[in-house]
Amino acid sequence: MNRYFSIGEMAKLNNISVQTLRLYEKMGLFKPTYINANNKYRYYTEQQIIFLNVIKYLKNIGTPLLEIKKIIEGSSENMYEFLHNQEEIIDNKIRELEKAKTLLRQQKIQLGEQLQLKQLDVVIKRRITERQVIVVKCEEKLSPYDMIDLYMRKLGSVVESKGGLIPSQYGCIYEMKDYEKTEDIEYRAMFSPVAKNSVMLSETDEISHLTIPEGEYMTIAFQFSPRNYMKPYHQLYRYLLENQIKTQGKIYEFSAPNRFKSEGEVDLIAEIQILMD
């Protein structure tokens, strides 16, 4: 013997609203078994619950109501094909979200490191973990006075073609020497940090992977300005000489914006780092 439920009872039993059941009826998705001719009250049977569960399931995985109507009017084979395709869509979304999470975490780590640079114009020894970067060699003489945006865009174009993104932090590599003026510095390469294994490169790409090793670094952070670049550089250079600190001779210069609005002067915080022997 069938047990009948009013629209209110059916809604409460299935944790949905009466308005939702009325909408489903209007769309032909889920109709009551019996409508009282006198008072127009709607009644559903216990056996209908399983069909409502199917609708709720399809809706929960993001299926539009009109699409649900087509599915439930089709065969089991159609349902299987739809679920198979939907699984692939969800897998792709998961991969996209994982990539977004990786980029978010990378940017968060870089900003966290930048916020820790509270002491500017002070030589500091600190241990820095291994870092993965992508690097492009400089094909012309470049110094802190030169615009390096085109080189960074070359990095960005390749990384974006591989499904990645360039973060706000970037860097340059050059040899430690007793430079007299800023123009004497010659950048050997430009780089941008990337999450490990996040960008797959081929031998034909103009850029390559580089691992900046973990170790004890002598560093100095400062407000980036080509005009005043040599002041913190000479401060670090003299410190190394006076304290007879041996290094591996390669300067890693990291720069990142201190604010993110495009209007006004560019405000960058830079840090030059050199690995101790």
Automatic annotation (TrEMBL):
Q: Which CDD domains match?
A: HTH_BmrR (cd01107)
UniProt KW Transcription regulation keyword: yes
Keyword field contains Repressor: yes
InterPro entries the UniProt entry points to = DNA-bd_dom_put_sf, GyrI-like, MerR-type_HTH_dom, MerR_fam, Reg_factor_effector_dom_sf
Q: Which residues form a coiled coil?
A: 80-114
**Xref: Pfam families:** GyrI-like, MerR_1
Q: Which UniProt keywords apply?
A: Coiled coil, DNA-binding, Repressor, Transcription, Transcription regulation
Locate the HTH merR-type domain: which residues? 4-74
A molecular function annotated in GO for this UniProt entry is: DNA binding
- Can you name this protein? HTH merR-type domain-containing protein
List the source organism. Cohnella abietis
